[in-house]
Amino acid sequence: MNYIVLDFGGSSVKCAVMNSNAQIMRQFSLSSQVDSYDSWLDMFAPHFDKYRNEFNVQGIAISSCGAVDVDSGIIHGSSALPYIHDIDVKALYNERFNVPVELENDACCAALAESWIGKGKHSDHFCLLVIGTGVGGAIVTQHSVMKGHHLHGGEFGYMIMDYQDDQPVILGHLASTHALVVMTADKLGVPVDSLNGLKVFEMYDENHSEVIAVVDKWLKYLATGIYNIQYSVDPEVIIIGGAISQRNDLIDLLNKTLDSMLAVLPVARIRPNLEVSEFGNDANLVGALKHYLNRQGS
């Protein structure tokens, strides 16, 4: 069977036609910058009709930011897409397209992908840590995502890491790719929008001394978060996702930072086992499909 899978991001929605083995047969993107869900559905409808006819699409699977209630179809919380929240998303699709619809939080989707056919498929207990504009994640036990009472399980980015001027500072504001860019721009005295994660690491590779100092500090923040996850959840493996995880030496850099920390912590010597996400930018699509198949009993 074939399905249309959607991954809602802050500026665009990744769309794919996939079969039940997670093979992507068509892929495209649409803007997520609209004023209402009805406007988004109006834009999406001709694409759905086209691919439903071409591939006999049987359902829609959705990965979304926010605290997703998979039963009610309501996305709680807030995000860069205000129109997706506090409405019955599943009902909107059902009414418009008359096919089954399932949705799940994006980090949970990425974790399901790893648990299904990725780096976590042989692990009973693992965590996913996604590094991007913020820091997100998920906890997987016995191949099920542990969402918690308030649907915020695995929101590692909210861990308080420091205090500045008596104000708490969370991991997401210290160890995200955006945080790295902001710290680098501040150090170099340049506009934040003149940099991105790729440019920062290009300067790092060129042995720019000031940038090396910033990256080393950022790695310490990230490694500290990983250490805290290890000792609070005790997973077999922590899988690192997000675009920056595709940098070949990121795991080596984190392991060296962790080694330095553990060398001066004689009472805590469990070394986190780090892996890079299997799917890169397609993890949310793969996991949304798996969530759909689980819910629909396919």
Automatic annotation (TrEMBL):
Signal sequence: where?
Answer: none
Question: InterPro entries given for it?
Answer: ATPase_NBD, ROK
Q: What is this protein called?
A: Transcriptional regulator
